[in-house]
Design brief:
EC number: 3.6.3.-
Number of strands: 10
CATH architecture: 3-Layer(aba) Sandwich
Structural class: alpha/beta
CATH topology: Rossmann fold
Strand order of the largest sheet: 6-7-8-3-9-10
Helix content: 25-40%
CATH superfamily: P-loop containing nucleotide triphosphate hydrolases
Number of domains: 1
GO molecular function: ATP binding; ATP hydrolysis activity; transmembrane transporter activity
Keywords: ATP-binding, Hydrolase, Nucleotide-binding, Transport
Family: Belongs to the ABC transporter superfamily. Macrolide exporter (TC 3.A.1.122) family.
Strand content: 25-35%
Radius of gyration: 18 Å
Oligomer: single chain
Low-confidence stretches: none
Pfam family, one: ABC_tran
Distance between the termini: 19 Å
Order of helices and strands: EEEHEEHEHHHEHEHEE
CATH class: Alpha Beta
Shape: globular
């Protein structure tokens, strides 16, 4: 599904060039459960942003479903991202003034899906994450674990084949964090490709396949 070949990413910091990703070769198969671990500043988030099409590599090639999308325009990448990739972040990124249902609805509104279908999908998504009774609650009325469940429902509302989770338990207590990982793993069991970025070995070790990145390079894989 995803194939990265000879990926490099440089950032210019003042007069210094920082080599954030260094010769990354990585293949992620359909339905795989992969964790990416490494210390702070190792390149984990940069790699996630490249996979997520939020950032483009300085050199190398990105293949998605055997299409080389490296040279796609911003509009083309946005379309590919919208149709194929869901995101879950550490800090949820929900819109405070919107209810849980309205936050989940937002990607569908941007995609032009009609109201009747939006309502049906919202009900199904919130039920799947165990929040049917919280549809009308705003973020400030929800716990951390519930906020992340809303974020997962929003990430999955367009039925993406790939779900990327960046430190999805980093802002949660241990009980809520365990529940969120269980939920993500259930989605993987249903066929969603799951990539989890984490600095927590206990979370990372749960994945079926694990890579460790250090100084922008893949140091180890198990």
């Amino acid at each position: 599904m995803i194939r990265l070949e000879d990926i490099h990413r440089y950032f210019q910091v003042g007069e210094q060039s920082v080599h954030a990703l260094d010769d990354i070769d990585l293949t992620i198969a359909h339905g795989e459960y992969l964790s990416v671990m490494g210390p702070s500043g190792s390149g984990k988030s940069t790699l996630l942003n490249v996979i997520a099409l939020l950032d483009q590599p300085s050199s190398g090639h990105y293949f998605l479903n055997d299409r080389d999308i490296t040279q796609y325009s911003d509009d083309e990448l946005a379309k590919v991202r919208r149709e194929n990739i869901g995101f879950v972040f550490q800090f949820f990124h929900l819109i405070p003034r919107l209810t849980a249902a309205e936050n989940v609805e937002m990607p569908m509104m941007l995609a032009g899906i009609d109201r009747k279908e939006r309502q049906q999908r919202i009900e199904t998504a919130l039920k799947q994450v165990g929040l049917s009774d919280r549809a009308g609650h705003r973020p400030d009325q929800l716990s951390g674990g519930q906020l992340q469940r809303v974020a997962i429902a929003r990430a999955m509302i367009m039925n993406p084949g790939i779900l990327l989770a960046d430190e999805p338990t980093g802002n949660l207590d241990s009980k809520s964090g365990a529940e969120i990982i269980d939920l993500l793993e259930r989605l993987n069991e249903q066929g969603v490709t799951l990539v989890v970025i984490t600095h927590d070995p206990a979370i990372g070790e749960r994945a079926k396949r694990k890579i460790r990145i250090v100084d922008g390079k893949i140091e180890a894989e198990t």
